Amino acid sequence: MRSNYLFPESARFYEHSLRLYERLGRELDFNIMFSQRGMLTLAHSRHDLESQRRWANAMRLNGVDSELLDTDEVAELVPALDCSPSARLPVMGGFIQKRGGTVRHDAVAWGYARAADALGVDIIQNCEVTGFELSSGGAHTVKTTRGTIGADRIGLATAGHTTTLADMLGFRLPMTSYALQAFVSEPLKPVLDTVVLSPACGVYVSQSDKGELVVGGGLDLYASYAQRGNLPTVEQTLRGLLTLFPSFSRLRMLRQWAGIVDVVADSTPVLGRSPIPNVFLNCGWGTGGFKAIPAGGWCFAHTIAKNEAHPLTAAFGLDRFARGALIDEAAASGIAH
Amino acid sequence: MLLLTCPHCGPRDETEFSCGGESHIARPSLEATDDAWADYVFFRTNPMGVTFERWRHAYGCGCWFNVARDVVNHRILATYAMTDPKPATSETAISNGLQQSAELAR
Known about the structure:
The complex is a heterodimer of chains A (337) and B (106). By secondary structure, chain A is an alpha+beta fold.
């Protein structure tokens, strides 16, 4: 959970999301285990330090909290981290967004499902969309494995499989689906009370309330709909983890999985109208959609209800590619998503 | 884990290669519209099935080549040269493709 973005469009949107998360537990009357334990990004070179100084200051200019740390401050915050000068990638500093942190993902899904159900939303599980019936005014019928559903307006929010639906509707999207892996270790006693991200090591890690280390890395770098990752990426991610925390070397992993994510060239989601007048897009979240759930839903509901973009997501439309108005967080500051 | 067949070096582990994304994309004319350029630069076919993509033997001979691959089960269906046309992906075409890549490897 974080809102450490560089461009004003992203910062405004993700900061709104973080603020919604701050009161989501109360609003849903469900303990989502939101823990603002801080999100620490490590610098391993002078170049990292310089770009992080720019990044952290851009955040502050956008009204988002961030603090630059030197090596001693990082070492004090995360004693398990190898901050010695002889480390493979010595820690030269970093910066922290203290309002960042973790949320229990299942609780967010359960809380939302219960609240939506109470509001009269029908949630139909295990029901696959098999096609649409198109007419001159757009798509008004969704065909599924459990029958057809009539609709005045349709929203596509299917993450890695968005282009599968777009293919049925006959339009193209600027997206490719990749597998993104994550790992959970056996439980440990408390050892890490913040989220640590090291772009140079290609890994991020936090410790769950049950004591497990939750570890993630980069994408498997070729298109995939197979919901399992490949070993070279596992090896690379865990190598990165051990570079940072040599003391984790004998830790065993309990679970590993891969989810399919839809990645856009500029690492910014696509939210707004589609080429079909009554079909709306909520996709392209790539590797980082979880932190955006409350604001993404908020702005998507606005877009569908009013048939126009919410001010917070006006820049995220599908038209930005032809206009060249990309919001390239990855190129600007190395934020993959 | 993929076992890719470099046309020059033969079968090698996936860690020696880097994927260059969708292949067979034709560059539009300089007079093309912004939409056509956006489609060329950013929009991709992303089927849940067989894809045709460019790969490079980055930690080997450096050769670029094409791979037809099923992205659901990660099966390699054909390996062919950069300038070859897109192969058919029926079962016969697949075995021909595999044979061809084996010959190329020799």
